[in-house]
Design brief:
alpha/beta; Urease, subunit C, domain 1; nine-stranded mixed beta sheet; 38% helix
């Protein structure tokens, strides 16, 4: 600030601060300089105290902290969306090997670069400023470059297993290479660089894909670097069955014996848990991630087995993710809340304010970023979203928190800012040619499906399509 002016001042907005007092400013202003918030308060006060190089009339906007998606596949799924038939039950190994794995394994470096760019654009346009990748990136540098091109904040890691599911290969070599892969990623994208938006974490495939040595090494690296560790676990009973058969312990019990449970561990799904496993999650402060759409579409038996509300009541931090489906996290809010209200027959369960906390302050805390993002307070990074209220779902605007959760979705996002940089303006990226990306994504996705030799199945006739064609332009 060489001339006494700050970078940007937005005024006249309804601001949901998510600060310690959870203030909602009806006519609020947000002042930003050098990528951080320097003031947030009533418009008259902030404008009197600050002059800006860029002043924006944000009337008709709700400003919230940037949303945090705790679990999303940025490669594998975006280029093949909707391809797998709804009738496929991928709890069975045969269907998993036919429909899921080939779509991931056929991705080359250029595919993952395009897929990551597309995923980042989707998330930003829905108000997501930070996310945790789900751990299925195979071409790491290319994918990170794709994410970086859009300017989004992320915690990412290379595909990490360390165990051969069919028993082939040298187990010692597989484990060593898996650990080395994590170490290379941490060296290339170091978490110690506080100004880097995209940094590496140990992110494991989870389930039964990781050896004990990989789990322990990943936890040790996470502890050493002061970062998180994430993995899938127990969407289906098959994880429990495998651990009981091989260790005579349930999955969370085994992880406890390995010494890897702790407040920097984030476990996704956790649908099938015993009383003892719930006790361990509470005891060690493990973070749980719920992906409502994936749970429904994947038939995870949430109704019969999930204990997410009970875990939250006992102090477990619950985050939300979009997994490999619709990346609009705002649509996940009412889905998650409504699902458990219905299942527990308790209308007071998961109220709107708690849902918004899950994707802002709670998620930031679980990621070790509570002092940086998740709320709009002085000194924090300027990661925020402007939602357009001049839309039918937000008029009349009476209760902004309730309406954002139950009525709105990502289509109402007007602008998105990360470190004070406007990445989405008027609903469009300020960094890339979106139409060019769409053309690249279509070409990459159709070529990928052909290489995977998967049939395009449709209950209705696709006129002019061959057995493996994707005819749409």
């Amino acid at each position: 600030m060489t001339d006494g002016r700050i970078d940007t001042l937005l005024h006249g907005a309804t601001i949901i601060t998510m600060d310690a007092e959870r203030r909602i400013l009806v006519d609020g202003a947000l002042a930003v300089d050098a990528g951080r918030i320097v003031a947030v308060g009533p418009t008259a006060e902030v404008r009197a105290a600050h002059q800006a190089r860029r002043t924006i009339d944000a009337g008709g906007r709700i400003i919230t902290p940037g949303l945090i998606n705790a679990h999303v596949h940025t490669t594998g799924d975006p280029l093949t969306r909707g391809f797998m038939p709804d009738t496929v039950d991928y709890r069975t190994p045969d269907n998993f090997l036919k429909w899921v794995l080939p779509r991931y394994m056929e991705h080359g470096p250029a595919d993952e670069h395009v897929s990551a760019k597309l995923s980042a654009l989707e998330m930003l346009r829905c108000g997501i400023t930070c996310f945790v990748e789900a751990g299925t990136i195979r071409h790491f540098d290319e994918a990170v470059a794709g994410l970086d091109a859009l300017g989004i904040r992320a915690r990412v890691g290379p595909w990490t297993e360390g165990r051969s599911m069919d028993g082939s290969g040298d187990p010692v070599a597989l484990e060593r290479e898996a650990i080395a892969g994590i170490e290379r990623a941490l060296a290339a994208y170091p978490p110690a660089d506080k100004d880097r938006r995209i940094v590496a974490w140990p992110i494991l495939v989870g389930h039964n894909a990781n050896s004990d040595g990989v789990w322990q090494a990943a936890k040790a690296l996470a502890d050493t670097h002061g970062i998180g560790l994430s993995a899938h676990m127990s969407p289906y009973r098959s994880d429990t069955d495998w651990y009981l058969a091989n260790y005579n312990r349930r999955p969370i019990e085994h992880l406890a014996d390995l010494g890897v449970l702790g407040p920097n561990l984030l476990l996704t799904h956790l649908t099938h848990l015993s009383d003892s496993e719930c006790d361990l999650l509470v005891q060690y402060g493990v973070n749980a991630i719920f992906c409502p759409l994936a749970s429904i579409k994947g038939a995870f038996d949430v109704a019969g087995s999930a204990r997410h509300p009970e875990l939250v009541a006992r102090g477990v931090t619950l985050l939300l993710g979009t997994d490999g489906y619709d990346p609009d996290l705002m649509r996940a809010l009412p889905l998650a809340a409504g699902m458990f209200k219905m299942l527990r027959q308790d209308n007071a369960l998961f109220p709107c304010h708690q849902m918004l906390e899950m994707v802002t302050v709670d998620a930031a805390r679980a990621l070790g970023l509570a002092a940086e993002i998740g709320a709009l307070s002085v000194g924090m990074r300027a990661d925020f979203v402007c939602h357009d209220t001049n839309r039918p779902e937000l008029r009349p605007l009476i209760n902004p928190v309730n309406q954002l959760v139950w009525s709105a979705d990502g289509r109402g996002v007007d602008s998105v800012w990360v470190d004070g940089e406007c990445l989405i303006d008027g609903g469009r990226s300020t960094r890339i040619d979106e139409q060019a990306l769409y053309r690249d994504a279509h070409a990459a996705g159709t070529a990928l499906i052909r290489r995977a030799n998967l049939p395009l199945e449709s209950p209705w006739p696709l006129i002019g399509a061959g057995p493996t064609d994707t005819p749409f332009r």
